[in-house]
Amino acid sequence: DSEELDPLLRLRLAEKAVRSAALAVRAAPSDYEPWLWLARTQASLGLWEQGERCLERAKELAPTGQRLELFEPEKGPAG
């Protein structure tokens, strides 16, 4: 559970996730998924403006009708 992680470790992991997502965007700049993950990882660090810009780019690149959100909706209980 991420709530049990040391706050400094959690920050370092989030920063590494942003760097990894940025590399993925550079490798596939016309693919919406890396842009979406970059947006989400930036938001996890509180980089809201950057996250929103990346989300908008992901929406521009996504297939028509594809709904993209900064955060995934929570899943309810199975059953």
Account of the protein in words:
InterPro entries: TPR-like_helical_dom_sf (IPR011990). This is Bacterial transcriptional activator domain-containing protein. With 79 residues, the chain is mainly alpha-helical. The protein has a domain at 18-61. The protein is built from three helices and no strands. It has helices at 7-27, 32-44, 48-61. Helix 1 (7-27) packs antiparallel against helix 2 and helix 2 (32-44) runs antiparallel to helix 3. The protein is globular, with a radius of gyration of 14 Å.
User: Biggest sheet, open or closed, and with what strands and sense?
Assistant: none
Q: What's the number of helices?
A: 3
Low-confidence segments = none
Strand content: under 5%
Helix-strand string: HHH
Structural class: mainly alpha
Radius of gyration: 14 Å
CA distance, first residue to last residue: 23 Å
Shape: globular
Helical residues, percent: 55-70%
Mean pLDDT: 89
Number of strands: 0
Compact overview of the structure:
With 79 residues, the chain is mostly helical.
Keywords:
79 residues; 61% helix; 3 helices
Please write out the topology.
Elements: H1 7-27, H2 32-44, H3 48-61
InterPro entries: TPR-like_helical_dom_sf
Protein name: Bacterial transcriptional activator domain-containing protein
Organism: marine sediment metagenome
